[in-house]
Records
---
Amino acid sequence: MKRFLFCIAMLFCMCMTMNAQGLKTYSGVYRANAHFLFGTQKATYTYKNAEDGTRIYEGNFAYSCTSRPNLYTKVTGHFHDDCKEGLWTYTDKSSETKTLKINFKEGYRNGIYEYTYTTSKGTIKESLKATMKNGVMVGPVSGHAVQYDYQDGIVMGQGVFSGQTDEDGLADGTWKLTMKLGDGSTRVFYNKWEHGVIKENYYIDDTTGDKENINGGIPSVIVDVVRNTPYQMEKMIDRGSDKPWQGVLLDKKEVDEIKTKVMDSDEVYQLPKSDYGGCANDEEFIQAKSTIPNILYKLNGTKAICVIDEQGNVTDFEFTQAPKNPAVAKELERCLKLLKYKPAIYKLFTVKCKWNFWYDGNKSLLPEEPEEQISNVEAEKKVEDKVFDVVEQYPSFPGGEGAMFSYISNNLQYPEKAKEKGVQGRVFVKFIVEKDGSISNVEVNRSVDPDLDNEVIRIIKSMPKWNPAKQKGTEVRAYYYVPVAFRLK
């Protein structure tokens, strides 16, 4: 029994060691989005290196900015694959005490959202307690609010509020705000909502007991609470999540727009997914379902766009580069429309999402059943012109991959327009390394922004000649893929 337990313990340790392989630890000065803070900024976190030399955060993260022993700002949390995951806690003790707790799942707010602002006397000045689902507030909500006259810089009133949202994140039922005004009187405000549509908005006059209609809705109080401090606290470490929440609740008009809009793939919270009917990928699925022999060869250079709808169906199919044979084009469309996807998710909703398919046609050298007779010279020419995806010896930049990324880093110029727009991300580019080492057919496989795409294309085209790929000892043409990261400092 002891030997069994010992083996289990050793196996656990081996797994932990294997899991930790490749992770590095950083501890030191840190550039957080908190330049308004005074003091020493430091972070400790674990990470792994990406192919392009940037860091992918993985594991625990801790940040602090300390001006005095009892005056500090701290952030703690966890990253998984460069996304915030689990509970993150933000604490600000630069004057009075402010705490913010948010639960994340794959970089999006899912779970608790709690904010508390406590004065030096222990009184709660502002607060918000709610539950988030896919970045949207769902269920009961309550908190403390302060009403300011920003022009004169004085407090007009303080109070508590409560309400709820429905399963779509829309204000629903009765909302209540009890506000103690500057003159010492108390006023109670009410909203009656029905799935995001306000039906009544009033307060009861203390002197007459009558309902007095007013403008505006109580949910707007949440915006005042969140934008005042939590938004700034969350913004300190905004890596690995969507933009800091500003407290805005969904409204009926926005929900209707979400449900009708066709989203770009970089907009959605979760991309469409498919098991390809048990096949490894869409190409294997097409090969299995198609009645046309060797269809993948005949799709050489084919590109198509479509929409994955809310039910996960392939719709609105359109070729941007069609196969030469109309029958092949029709067969590809038929096969792809057999696919079933888990639809994309945006906020709480399954949504329509734009989707792309493209095929290089390198699954075989020649058709099994040629559509027309070709001469031996033509066949040799096809072999000569073939571009390999898989080769015995891949093309390489002079000096190796490290030298390639150094070349990119030293020559990359961040486009000013992209800087101004705050655009960043990774551009994936594909190109051919010719037999003589020259670069050709540079194209963007995954786009971020046209200006960033063009800069990457410029850099790749400016490269010196590579060492060409080899197959059976002979130089051949081969594809190469490179990710280029743009990060704003």
---
Amino acid sequence: MEILFWSCLAFGVLMALVTLVFGDVLDWLSHDLLEPVVFAGGITIFGGAGLLLARYSSLHPGGIYACAVSAAAIGGLAMHFAYVRPMKNSENSVAYSIHELAGKRAEVITSIPASGYGEVLVRVGAGNTNHIAESFDREAIAEGTKVVVVRVKDDVLGVSRLD
């Protein structure tokens, strides 16, 4: 009985380390009900709880197995709902590519001359970002004017008045 618990504890710790190091490679193992991290945690909890119960309790072997399985199930569920699920939901990125700005509305914050550069403020996600801009139509655009990004060329936004 003790060999089984030591084996599960060692396997769980080893699998947790492998998952930590090679987690992206093992993504194909991921499933909503069986995540490698949760599985490794459950096996580790089973082994550790079994060892502690076998050594420090007066339960018979069937009771020790039942309590160890219960502890593993509760620990695995807790790990899933407290760690894995929130981490999956937080995989949103605030990064964007400047090329995604084509078609977005903006506001001129530094006047754009007919043949020169100014600055626009573009709303991206939950925030704002400012970029160098030039007039797409080759006409002067005053500060405060609402514009639309027509093209992105060499990290400069080509904007046109929004009528």
---
Amino acid sequence: MNRICSAAAASLAFALLAGCSGGGDVIPTTPDAPAAEQGAPSAGAEVLDALRVRSANSAALLVLEADKVFVTLAAGSENLLVNGGAFQPTGEVGVDGAVFSRRDISFNGSGALTVDSPAGHGMVCNRDLVFCGGSYAVTAASHGLKARKSVRVGEGSELAVSAGKDGIHVKDDDDPTTGFAYISGGSLALTADDDGISTESNLLVTGGSVAVQATTDTLHTNASIAVTGGELELAAGGLAFHADVALLVAGGDIDTSACAGETDAPIVERS
């Protein structure tokens, strides 16, 4: 079994990423960054009640419009959203997920949410998509989670994503310096017919349990990857780590034995 096991200061990861990304350090520098997104405002609260209601409508779609949206799953609740691809709001363009938000959206709580999108993406966010609590099962014909600015997963979150394309896809066509992923805790299980996680900018894992089974690469970025903690179980028909700039492994317990290759990063540092 091929394992990369090491322990070093997390600051080393941030130093490497900041120095190599070309667009500055866009990775949050605090381990609890996802939790910092909590604190639900009253704006948009009423529309969010839709997530607490179980729906069997095969063409359901939740469109969120508030500047900052906070979704709290009530303890013990089970919620369902299914998008059969038949529903398109009047005048709406590009709404192709069971959940769609134009602005930041943060999910938390201790309930469960099942998202089924057999004709599109699972969750789509035009800015920051944050998970800081709750259990989520996402099945999508295209990308499982798609955001422009970032996807962040923190302690207390359990995500199981099955996707016909990337499990997590983060890219902003208008700004190549953004579009990052940050995993600081919780558990993440991705099954993807393309990449497990694909980002335009940096990808950072500081903790949590990450299991990825991907047809192409497990972790793929156009910038740098840093792993400073967590347990990573990676399986891929391609590479465990694809990074155009640099790969830093400064902690964590990582198994890449089920990948066709480990990395093609031009700069690789282990400590």
